[in-house]
Amino acid sequence: QVQLVESGGGLVQAGGSLRLSCAASASIFSFNAMGWYRQAPGKQRELVATIASTSSTSYADSVKGRFTISRDNAKNTVDLQMNSLKPEDTALYYCNAKRGIMPPQIYWGRGTQVTVSS
Q: What confidence tens digit (pLDDT) does each residue in 37-85 have?
């Protein structure tokens, strides 16, 4: 069973930065894509950013220009650099990985809390 472990969350003031990291128990080459999602209290989980095995990336409009997703194949990690943080970025951030097709296998971490104070 694949395990994803997030780290790097915390409390930061608006305008500050945090770097989240997701460590996978398997080679990230085995995943079609990995990504970060977030869920704020009372809201649905939403996609933040994804990175494919080709290293192509995509971002939610709300974080474009502020967040950067990257992967380190040697360390089996996927990071999310978050700059210019806003109070509305406050949420529990989850790492996600997808492997295979028809149907794909989906894996989730347990989440790391990010709190941005105004």
A: 999 999 999 999 999 999 999 999 999 999 999 999 999 999 999 999 9
Residues present in the chain in total: 118
Q: Are 69 and 79 in contact (CB under 8 A)?
A: yes
SS3 content of the chain, % helix, strand, coil (to 5): 5, 55, 40
As a dihedral over the C-alpha atoms of residue 44, residue 35, residue 94, residue 83, rounded to 10 degrees, the angle is -90
pLDDT band of 100, cuts 50, 70, 90: confident
Burial 62-84 (b: 16+ CB within 10 A, else e): ebeeebbbebeeeebbbbbbbee
Which positions ≥6 away from 2 have C-beta within 8 Å? 24, 25, 26, 97, 99, 105, 107
**Nearest alpha-carbon partner for 28 in 92, 95, 94, 81:** 95
